[in-house]
Amino acid sequence: MSLRKVWKAGALTALVVSGMWYFAPPRAEEDPFARMDKGFNLFAEVYKAVIRDYVEEVDPEESIHAAIRGMLESLDPYSQFLSEKASVDQLKIDTTGEFGGLGIQISIIGDVPVVISPIEGTPAYDIGLQAGDRIVRINGEPTKGKGIAEIVNTLRGKPGTQVTITIEREGVESPIDYTITRAVIKIKAVPLATRIGDVGYIRLARFSKVAGDEVEAALRDLMAQGIEGLILDLRSNPGGLLVEACEVADKFLEEGKLIVSTKGRVGDQNRHYYSEHPPVLDPKVPLVVLVDRGSASASEIVAGAIQDHDRGLIVGE
Predict the structure, then answer these.
(1) Which end of the chain is flanked by fewer CB atoms within 10 Å, N or C?
(2) Which is it for the CA torsion 35, 40, 43, 48, positive or negative?
(3) pTM of the complete model beyond 0.70
(4) The dihedral of CA 292, 295, 299, 301: what is its sign?
(5) CATH superfamily label, 98-186
């Protein structure tokens, strides 16, 4: 026979039947804050019932986090709850383009992290790490079998602190220990700007706080080389800062063109963003913007503004 529990809490009626709970919704109120209070009361009753009566022990903190994630997921695909410090730190890196680390690109090959390339001018480059070095230990701990995220988080840290890595290098019989002092590593928003024949190519990987400046520098360099066309590659660019999206679009549009509008429930959220300067790229130079399914957020703003004002051709999904 099913176990039944019935109890009341104010206007709340809760029924537990075979491990399932049904809660009658609170009566609608005119005052939104009164509705919010009733909502909190409802949530508290459900939470207490789950913690107290569920057949298995429940992690209280994870239950709260799951409820918050569910609330945000009901809004749209883009609202997220950053519950872990690592997630917050990664967001800061994505927007600032800076982190404390060694300055190496790594990949997992054969269950161990392998140096793909040391970045010039960083501690890893200066101390002599080479492409192909196999990182077998970090601070004495074996790296075999660990995931890339765990390895990266261990290598990163506060600038000025030290980390010791042990590497195996082809042609060297014994492992080599390096004690490296972490420094501020700057990630380029424009990892590649080059010329192919008479056509310039700019790869914009992220809209961090330096995106506008790096795009302008690349454009001026390519214009000085006399390019007759430009490709702006936004493929797999997940976006970033709104202000940098406007800065980048500003480099291609005539002064005074609408870039994007924002609208919210609060008055100061309703804003229009316009290009404020003459374009850096000569308006006579043809422009192609490459996008794909990974082009989101700020990438869509830039591509949309260029398309809306017939400044260039958008190619991709």
Answers:
(1) N
(2) negative
(3) no
(4) positive
(5) PDZ domain (2.30.42.10)
